Structure formats: C-alpha cells, structure tokens
Amino acid sequence: MTTDSERLKWSLGRATTIGLNTFREAVRMKLFLAMTALAVCALASSFLFREFNFGSSELKFIADFGFGGMTVFGSALAVIVTAQLFYGEIEHRTAYTLLAKPLYRSEFVLGKFFGAWATVLCFMAMLALCLVFALWWRETSIMAEFPEEFVNGRRIVRYGDILGFAALQSIRIGILCAVVILFSTYATSALFSMVLGMLVWIVGQLQHVAVEAWATVDSLILKGIYALASFALPNFHLFDVGERLALGEALPGSLYGKLILYGALYGSFYLAIACISFNRREF
Amino acid sequence: MKLALSISGVTKDFRIPGSKRWVRAVDNLTLSIRENEVYGLLGPNGSGKSTTIKMALGLMKPSVGECSLFGVASDTPSARLNVGFLPEAPYFQRFLTGRELLRYFAKLAGLSRPETAKRIDALLEKVGLEDAGDRRVGGYSKGMLQRIGLAQALVGDPKLLILDEPTAGVDPVGAAEIASIIRTLKSEGKTVLLCSHLLSQVESVCDRVAIMGRGKRLLEGSIDELTLGTDSSSLQLDGASPELRESVAALAAAEGARVATRRRSLEDLFLELAKGGEGGDD
Amino acid sequence: MNSSRKQIALFVFAALVLGWAVSPLDRSIATQLGQRSGVESLRNLESQFGQGLSVAILGGYRSVAANLVWLSKNGDWEEQDVAGTLGKIALATSIDPRPELFWLNGARIIANDMPTWVVGYANTDQLIETEEGQAVARQYAQRALKFLEESRPYHGDNPDVYLEEATILWRKTGDKAGAAERLERALGTGVAPYVIYRVYAELLIELGRKAEALAVYEAHYQTLPDNDVEAMKFVVAERIRRLRKELEDSQ
Predict the structure, then answer these.
(1) pLDDT tens, A67-91?
(2) Is C26 within 8 Å of chain A by CB?
(3) What's the pLDDT score for residue A157?
(4) ipTM (interface pTM)
(5) Concatenated DSSP letters for C181-221?
(6) Topology of the domain covering B3-90+159-229+264-279
(7) CA of C70: which chain A residue's CA is closest?
(8) pTM flag (> 0.90)
(9) Could A21 and B157 be called an inter-chain contact, meaning their C-beta atoms sit closer than 8 Å?
C-alpha cells in the first residue's frame, strides 16, 4: 500500500475502472435489452413503411430509415442514458462512497463519460449491423429479381459507407454525451440535465440556421441570441451526411478527419468544463 | 504524536435554497484525532457531525478553516490515500454483487489482482458476509449493507477509518460484532473516527469522544474524564457486600454526601449537554 | 453563489471563443458536404416553420417525413386549397428533394389543377376562351416553371423534368421556342428517351425550322436499334423521307 505523504497520481486506469463499471450498470439495467428491441423495431418498421414510399428506390429508403434511427434514437439515448448513468450516481448517493476514495473527480467524470458513450456506441453498432444485414438481404433478393439493374452483377450499396456513417454519428453522440455530463455536474436532478441536453441537441441541429440568421437580422437582441446559439453550441447538422450517402456519393477521407477533429475539440472542451465544475460541487 | 485527522477553526455555512438566508452547520470547530485512537463524535441529528465528516473527506469545502488527513489538506485527492469511509445508511451500486462491489473498490484503490482476491475473501469473512458475497447488493438487508459498507471501507487497508453511524439499522448482535471489529482494528494499529448518536456503543469502544451540538464542540475528553466530569467526588464500589455498602452510605451521610447506585453515564451527560445546547447561543 | 454565476459566465464566454475559433472548420465541412444554406432551405417553408422545425430535428428520417407530408397534401388537394397544397408541396420537396415524383406531380398540380380550382370546374373553358382565364392559366404555368427550376440542384440531369417544363411552356403559355430550348437541354443529358427526340423534331417543324428538324431526325436515326419497338425506327425513317421531300419541294 501507499505511504503517508505519497502524492496520488492521475490515473487513466481508475477512470477506465469507473467507465467499465458504468457500462456494466447499463448492461445490468437491462438498458441493452430495451435498446436492442428499439433498434430491431426501427428497422423492421422500414419494411412496413416501404408501401408508402414514393419515388426513391427501396434500398435508399431502407438506408434512410436506418440512418434516421441511428441519428434520432442514438441522440435521444445519449441524452437519457448519460443523465441516468451520471446523475444516477449522485441521486442514489453512490457517488458519495466513491468520491471519498482516493481518486480525482476528473477521473470520475471521464470514466462516466466513456461508460455512457460506450453504451450508446453499442446501440449504434447494433443498429448499423442490423441495417447492413437488412440491406444485404433486400439487395440480394432484388438482384435475383432484376439482375439487369446491377452492372456486372456488382452490388450497388456501399456497405463500408454505412459503417462510416455510424462512426460519424458516434462522434456527434460523443459530443452530446459530454454536454449532458457537463449539465449533470451542475444539475440538481437527472430530469434537468435531460431537458437541457435535449435542448442542446435541438438547437445544435438547427444551429446552421442561426448562423445565417445572425448575419441577416437587425435587432441587436436577436443578433445576440443567434450569436450565442451559433457560436456557443456545436453544429450537429454537419454530421448529417446521410443524404450524401443515400444519393450514392462517397465521402472523402478528409471529411472524416475534419469531423473527428470537430468532435474532439467540442467534446474535450465540454469535458474539461465538466471536470472544473464537478471539482467545485459539494456533496 | 502525529495527527490522523486535524480540523482547525472550521466553519460551514449553507444558503437556504430559494432565500438569501444562511444557516451555520458547523461553527468554529477544532478537533484533533491522534493515530491509533478510537474517537467518538457524538451529537443529536443536525448537530453538524455529517457535515464535519464530509469536510474532513474533502466532499465539502469549509467556509472558514482547514481540515487535513495525516498532514495532507483534505481537498486534495492524495489526502484520501489512507482513509476508508462508511457513509451513513450506505447506498451502493445495486446491480453489483457484494464481491464485485469490493473488487471494484479494490481496483480503484490500486490493489493488484491476486492481492484483491485474497483481501476480498478475508474481508467478507471479517464482516460475516462470506455466504452473501455472490448475491446482488440490491437484495441486501440494512444490516448487510452496513457490513458490506464496512468491508468496502477497509478494502484499501486504510490507516484511518471514518464510520458514520455504523450500527444504524443493525440488530444488537450485529452491533456488538461491529464494536468488536472496531476493537480489532485498534489492536491492528488503525485509527477510527466513529460518528454516532447511539451512546452505549461509543462508550464501549472509544478512547476519546467529543460531543457536538448546533455545530459546536461542546465537550471533548476521554470517557473517564467526561463521565467523572467536574463532580469527581463520586466513586464506584465494586464487589462490596451489602454490609459494607450500608456502612459506607452511613459514613457518607454523616459527612453530608450521598451514595448513588450507578455511575453517571455518557448518556446522562449527552442529554444534559443537548438540552443546554438547545437553549444556548446560535 | 455569486462565484458560481461568474463561473457560468466564464464558461459561456469560453464556449463562444471556441465556437468562433472552430467556425472556419465548421464552414469548410459544410462546404465540402455541399450543405444547402439553412435560411434557403427554410425559406420555402415560410408559414410552415413549425413543421419545418420538427422535421429538422428528425434528421435522418427525411424520406419518411417527406412522404408523410406528401400524403397529407392529398387532403388539401381534395379540398382544392391552393395555399395548403402549395405549402405541402414546397415542404415535401424541401425535406427530401430526391424523389422526382414530388417535382413532376407537384408541377402538374400547379399548372393543370390549380387554374381550374380558381375559376371553378364548371368554368374550365374560360381558361382557354376568356382573357382573364388565360391570364390565370399563364400565372400558374409560370409558378410551376419556377417550382421546377428549384429542382435543378437535384435533378439537373433528369430529362423528365425538362420534358415537363417543355410541356407546360408549349401547352400552357404557348412559348414554343422556350419549349424547344428545354427539350434541347433534355437531349443534352444524354439519357433522354427516344420520344423526346421525336417531340423535339416535331416542335422544330411547328416553329418552321424544318432543316434543323431534319438534322435532328437524321442524327437520331443513326443511333436507333433495329429491334426496339419504342425506337419506332420506321416512323423516324418515314419522317426523314417526308421532310427531305418537303424541303426539296420548297426550294
């Protein structure tokens, strides 16, 4: 064991331990069961909705549905799961015992973030695999029915891009998780951080509108509000690459790099603030 | 002698939510706990005991004053290297089994894998949960929660143990067992800070106690000092025959003194002080 | 408490600085993605901003949302509600501009159905016979053309859209030259069906540009397969023969 005046070193190991335990909590909370059911239902419904799809081809429609599921359910889950897993520790007073241990609060914050993020990532991976499976299955049967539509019998769906899309959405979800963690360090209830998290999601999704409105409105107050929305929050619309993919265009590698950088900047910023804020919190 | 815990001139004010008024939970408190002593912190609910412990552990910052553990300021994580804490009515991750919970905390304490396995077995046996180690904590009774709480506090083999109401919700047999564990810990060279409002237990294990009321330290000393108190003219007669007692009583009466049948207990003192404290200043 | 308020203010300020610092990266990603400007995509929605808001949040469920809007448009169509139908058509295409059906059907509704709603079914002949009626027809034709113009970024290489424009220009505004120009653009896409070549050539003949029409037919004839009924090779051959004769006669 340690000696008296030894200084405690910041440890990624402890953060990982907390992260793994958080992930285990999500698994044992049967969160996964619910999420899997949700994912399968979301995709299965795309087969029901096929009937009322005008114009766009069936495969495009299924892809669209899968992308939608990843974005919408993924973001909603990110907000709910993160608030539950982080604030839950405070609400159930388990953080109490934990923070009395020799560990840095920033280790706790990061551990919780990675645990929550990993939980939602599992959901995304599940959905992505379901989508790939659904597309593969439909494409195979369409190929058998209309071989002339496929040049040299080559498949038209680019499966790598679907995984790429899932990876990009994971970055968006990472930012959202970090935001919810930040709110939870201030919050006095899980609901509070959920509501604020949802708000950031919505405003972030519409942020690009605010950026342009900022330049066009005259009222100073409106300008201020738009400036806040457009600069202080991340632009989630940038991650809406599904349209491009569904149109059959490939995403350039540099775009992946830029989006990863974008996510890393925002994510680490929110986490840094969360650590500062959590350090000040009293229990 | 080196101090395990030092609290000097600590005051803690809280703002009443939704108003501009402040309430003082701890008022200019000074406490010193020496190494290898069992120290009892007594006081009724709301006397500031829990707030004091939270400040000692760095879970809260004092408004004024300083706390340190083994000479390290409480607000640094390094201060908690040698401390184990059992919170009042402990809550643990309900989804873990007792063994998993201890493994989790052992990992956080930096124990190696083989060390952990050995330690967990020993601890489960020590607190009497060897048969319940593989059950989910969510299904534990109140008493079992206190036991697993004690085990997790001990998992890092700390030099100082802070126990907040360790016998709350535990049956008398269990409470006696916990008292015996505390005695063993002292014999192993550990320091224990015991917070309680159940005085009989404190009386049986503590070397020194402090009594708190309204955030202030009302009294501090060894059990003997406190129970003998200023009225040191009382004495205890053990193994005396009825005849001897009668003659002593007669002798005392002739001198204007009286013979009481029991010693003044800590409880009496506590109630006296608590009453006085309530009527006292704020 | 005061210090915590100060801290929040500091955080917001830091967030603003970060947003400002990241904005070049933000713009570069948006440009690379070719994202339409937010204001532009929302301008179409106008009064329907409420729906637009929820749709933007829907993120990926574009086609589903657009299809739902398109279906709900049928209600407005049955009620002959011009504003409602226009709004829903604009909304559906702004949510998901990919399906050509939204554009082609939308244009037909605007150019063909709406003028009859305005004058009333009983008075449909006014659209041809009276000055006012013709004005109404032209007004909606222009509207439909403007609408189709908006599909360019998504369907610039779709001959069917040009064919639709040509039809409206020819039938509703009488602008045969304009119609011919649209058909030429349709042929320029390289994927135009055989029928567009024939329509284009016939339109040129109506415009009195017989020599050009002959050239179009002759060039077209070279590319036609022998065994495709739709190609109507023998009809094209017959037209070429007659055109040559007419041109010779007129000389």
Answers:
(1) 888 888 888 889 988 998 999 888 8
(2) yes
(3) 79
(4) 0.83
(5) HHHHHHHHTS---HHHHHHHHHHHHHTT-HHHHHHHHHHHH
(6) Rossmann fold (3.40.50)
(7) A54
(8) no
(9) no
